[in-house]
Sequence to fold (192 residues):
Amino acid sequence: MKGLERKKELILQRELAFANAVGSAVFEKPKVSLWMVLVPLLFLYFSYRVQKFKTGRLNFDREFMGTRRKAMDLAVEAIETDVKPNIDRVARQSGLMDALEKPYASWLKALVVYYTDLLAASGDSFETLVRSAYRNRTDYLLTLNRLSTVEKDFHAALKPHMAATEGAAAIIATIEEQSRRLRREMAEQIFA
Fold:
């Protein structure tokens, strides 16, 4: 299964790059100003903000990749055992509140299908896997739109439970907007 492991790594590397790009839009990196050179105390504050930024980005990437890694593991297991994963059971065991289980299961299922398609494809790069699995930009965009839709449905179910969290709605909107933009750009690049 060495080939399967290689494909898994290629896909997860691309997903991590995707997470980094989305995270860049969510978190604003602190910038050095002339005042920091003139007033060293401001530089200490800047250092604190940079560290907070780095920690936030690492946490964002870890959380953003959590469901994706779980879906990848399910896709690999399904290919290795030729047994379709029980997504509803996995969603029930996720520890999410009942109202989130169904949209989470839909999102997880869409990711598993996407990853299974890519893992079953031929290629030695992410781009060749996508071209092999989807053949043209339209088919790939349909899959990416499906992913965006189920993610948006999950976020819609999540929003009422995060109403008390300051800025949550704006962060979710940024994640959705950037995900949609980055996916379109990726499809255009792969099928140029």
Summary: The chain has a mean pLDDT of 88. Residues 99 and 157 are 7 Å apart (CA to CA).
